[in-house]
TrEMBL record:
Major subcellular site: cytoplasm
Cofactor list: NAD(+)
Annotated localization: Cytoplasm
Top-level taxonomic group: Bacteria
CDD domains in alphabetical order: SAHH
InterPro entries: Adenosylhomocyst_ase-like_sf, Adenosylhomocysteinase-like, Ado_hCys_hydrolase_NAD-bd, NAD(P)-bd_dom_sf, S-Ado-L-homoCys_hydrolase_CS
UniProt keyword annotations, A-Z: Cytoplasm, Hydrolase, NAD, One-carbon metabolism
Source organism per UniProt: Caldicellulosiruptor morganii
Entry keyword annotation includes NAD: yes
PANTHER family named in the record: ADENOSYLHOMOCYSTEINASE
One Pfam short name: AdoHcyase
Name of the protein this chain belongs to: Adenosylhomocysteinase
Domain (S-adenosyl-L-homocysteine hydrolase NAD binding): residue spans on this chain: 183-344
């Protein structure tokens, strides 16, 4: 039995789902290719991804391919209750409510997994975590799954390194069509969408500090630059730091950037990137936002403990009065800003990412008996298929190698 906030919201949720579907040609092509084959027939699939309209289209696609689908969220503030209601209306079981407490959130994850789940689609690794801890007894049924995010893959590889990973997982985040487009263009646009619609302030001319220069950080920094900001990058990796410098950005330590920045955005996948010691150095009125998966990149716990006062400065913006009299503002409790304060990545971007999820799920279902308990890269043919369908939907044609060219590229002779 589903656990949602309000079933009566389903009509508005369905409108959102149908709107997104119009802009998801890759998922539509997969549906056409596999609808008669039903490659997931009878497979119980658990999805823990940010529960909004694009995710709903992935869930409905898997249902059309024969799966029994059970959906929960991957962040309490990213669930859209009307979309959850619409999925229930469409015959999918859902366990999620926006604004759930941490206890409720994990209860929803547990209820999702208590359905004889065989295949998981994870975002951040919470399903995987439960299947290796409290619900370890359910892991024997798992044939494998897919992981959407950098954070989740870090957790998976840690399990694999310790020899504790209980089933094969596909690192969807590392597919070219994921990190090149989703992480860079998707995160870049949606992060600023969340910040700008929540704050309604000008970006041009401000000092924007981007912590982390992976693909997500690159996208955020480039969009900030395009909006007229003066961009500072902080990094721990010397290669990425040098790349940021070569891309035209200032690079410095957080302790130095803290004194300069007007807007701070974390995108590292690590914890305590902005610590209280940094916050005390910041100017009055700075804005803090996190674009990493978990709300640990900004040390909110210490800020809550030591601030003299906390108040709601504006909807979804928490104001803190510091002991030095200055104020700082945190968007969406330091949670994933593009989903907790906006609608997430653009539809067309997630069309590609969810296509990789769907095809990788089919791959696991068809090959799980010969897969080891390891983290696997997405098969190259899946990446190329997704890119090819996307190009076709855009009306773009590209060259093909001739027979002689293929032979030349495969030979060591001139």
């Amino acid at each position: 039995m589903s656990i949602i906030k309000d079933y009566s919201l389903w009509e508005e949720g369905l409108r959102k789902i149908l709107w997104a579907k119009r802009f998801m040609p890759v998922l539509d092509q997969i549906r056409k290719d596999y609808i008669d084959k039903k490659p997931l027939s009878g497979v119980n699939v658990a999805i823990s991804v940010h529960l909004e309209a694009k995710t709903a289209n992935l869930a409905l696609l898997l249902k059309d391919l024969g799966a029994n689908v059970y959906v929960t969220g991957s962040n309490p503030l990213s669930t859209q209750d009307d979309v959850a209601a619409a999925l229930v209306h469409e015959g999918v079981e859902v366990f999620a409510k926006r604004g759930a407490t941490e206890e409720e959130y994990f209860y929803h994850l547990e209820k999702t997994l208590e359905n004889d789940i065989e295949l998981i689609i994870d975002d951040g690794g919470d399903l995987t975590y439960l299947l290796h801890t409290e619900l370890e007894n359910l892991s024997d049924r798992i044939m494998g799954g897919c992981e959407e995010t950098t954070t989740g893959i870090i957790r998976l590889k840690a399990l694999e390194k310790e020899g504790k990973l209980k089933f094969p997982m596909i690192a969807v985040n590392d597919a070219y069509c994921k990190h090149l487009f989703d992480n860079r263009y998707g995160t870049g646009q949606s992060t600023w969408d969340g910040i700008m619609r929540t704050t309604n302030i000008t970006v041009a001319g401000k000092h924007v500090v981007v912590a982390g220069y992976g693909f997500c950080g690159k996208g955020i920094a480039k969009r900030a630059q395009g909006l007229g900001a003066r961009v500072i990058v902080t990094e721990v990796d010397p290669v990425k730091a040098l790349e940021a410098y070569m891309d035209g950005f200032d690079v410095m330590k957080m302790e130095d950037a803290a004194k300069i920045g007007d807007i701070f955005i974390t995108a590292t996948g690590c914890r305590d990137v902005i610590r209280y010691e940094h916050i005390l150095q910041m100017k009055d009125g700075v804005i803090l936002a996190n674009s990493g998966h978990f709300n640990v990149e900004i040390d909110i716990a210490t800020l809550e403990e030591k601030a003299l006062k906390k108040y709601e400065a504006r909807k979804n913006i928490q104001g803190y009065v510091l002991e030095n009299g200055r104020e700082v503002f945190v968007i969406a409790e330091g949670r994933l800003v593009n989903l907790a304060a906006a609608d997430g990545h653009p539809i067309e971007i997630m069309d590609m990412s969810f296509a990789i999820q769907a095809l990788s799920s089919i791959y696991v279902a068809q090959n799980h008996e010969k897969l080891e308990r390891k983290v696997y890269n997405v098969p190259g043919e899946i990446d190329r298929f997704v890119a090819g369908v996307k190009l076709k939907s855009l009306g773009i044609e590209i060259d093909r190698l001739t027979f002689d060219q293929e032979k030349y590229l495969e030979s060591w002779e001139v």
